[in-house]
């Protein structure tokens, strides 16, 4: 039966009619398709749309509020609510929802109808009339049940009240609902009755405000007052999130309990061919997959999400989309929308989107590379080195501030990407290991060394090719007359580095593919803001009574920060054993497991930094720690229980049936005097595998039962969970051994070959 279900799933996927949608054209009568720029943001209640629908004084008041100059008053809120209701209803909206990000790496929404009943009295009788309304108070806040979301002990179960509050910096938008209707989404934060952050976004907004304030203070210390060149008024982090994911056939997915419950395969052996030929990366995108991605890109464009790139990733059935960089707060919302849209559109194409960091053992896992930089209200990238980084003091100040932040708080960044699922990927020669270091490249390393030592940049130390880059600008001669010269970045890339400088930004490569990027970006923003506070104080001390710090003053501060942060810089192979030894000599922490990483959130230096910047209160930080540890333990226990069920109900019965078939065949042959040595030999191979698998599974079952009674989550995560994970690996090895022996007709689960190559 299991084999028949697998075969039917494969046949159905090959014979089904592929989904086709009609992309909009310029005119109703047809003509060319609309370009992405023509449909971009059409489902977003943008500032441009708001300016057209609001009275000018109301719109001006809202813009002032966005700039932090005043609070949002009731008149303005009511006017915006009415305008967005009219706009949304024109686009078939029947409901609205406050859309927020609770502490579970997902999004949450509760739909409310615009419907309101209005009572009037005619001749003494009440007459009820139905109308559509949306008030300013409904826009500004809602009240979901806070007791049903993770709080890490900040709230008791009976303390249910919580509030969602409109995040005015993230525009409202509509998404398609059922039967031609749509839903108005109001991006929001989520706080408790006492104002504690119960979500990912509140702390991100706090970190952004602190980073902005401190970065502007540093810039004002080095920028002379000039009427022709106004001083910087705001600085914000920019972010580009490269989203990796797998797509597999949905019918086959439904036959895998492990994928449905845990997001990853707990069993399954590698096929003879997977990614070892290196032919999938940037290869031709399968037709069904391309159709799904194209539809997702269309929906995302309407939502104002600027997807730029799509391609095959390294593993079979693995893909990636990447956006144009945006302000970090908006980029976080857009990444959550990207995951949601990919998930929904995949279903329409009878595919399943897998965001787990390691859904298939033995091939590359998935990450979410976060490309982070700093930009000003003048449009300047503060991490752009320009053609002569050694004289670009503003760049050097912000570069070394970031280096110092990662050096001081690399362990908290490691904690920010820690999870049970990401543990299967980190350090597996496909993603950065547990030692946080920074890659800058040959040129910038030489620049920092030269500044530290007070000398000119040594061109000889850069090598012949980089000398050519410096002398000729950034042009690379390809030595073929028919090929044009190309521009060249100042640095190469190091794919083993967890935090690499890639031209004018840093790429934080260790973030997990299914997690919200909000938390790691919050920690990064906070660490950099804290270091900029130290830099601000150092510049003030260095400049003395002068209005602004001179070049010499700035260089003195830069030198000091270079010296302090030097151990974090590493240019080599982050996977090598030599680097682990060298990192230990440098005093850099090596944190291999998430169960060891979580505690670094509470390390005194990190906790003080997060409190000093105003991003976390002590209670919020403690709660975040407890939520992460509890989720880790729950994830491991759910995986263990799922594995036990699959082995007992599917794998062992299949093995028993195959042994019975072999035994009956051997007995039948013996009855007619035919040698049954091959069947007996295979039986002898299977028997110890089956016995060991049964014993190990019973042992894991007993361990899981004991774990339920362990109340101390630290003990549970660091001891019992590690024991359970080791037992699960032993069970998997035995079960995968059986997979290679048991008849394919009896094997109950779709195999990797079917999952990888049936899309």
From TrEMBL:
Annotated ranges, domain GS beta-grasp: 94-195
Xref: InterPro entries: Gln-synt_C, Gln_synt_N, Gln_synth/guanido_kin_cat_dom, Gln_synth_cat_dom, Gln_synth_gly_rich_site, GS_Type-3, GSIII_N
Recorded GO MF terms: glutamine synthetase activity
Biological processes per GO annotation: glutamine biosynthetic process
Stored Gene3D superfamilies: 1.20.120.1560, Glutamine synthetase/guanido kinase, catalytic domain
Xref: Pfam families: Gln-synt_C (PF00120), Gln-synt_C-ter (PF18318), GSIII_N (PF12437)
GS catalytic domain span: 200-651
Family that this chain belongs to: Belongs to the glutamine synthetase family.
Full protein name: Uncharacterized protein
Species the sequence originates in: Absidia glauca (Pin mould)
Lineage per the UniProt record: Eukaryota, Fungi, Fungi incertae sedis, Mucoromycota, Mucoromycotina
Name of the gene encoding the protein in the UniProt record: ABSGL_00841.1 scaffold 958
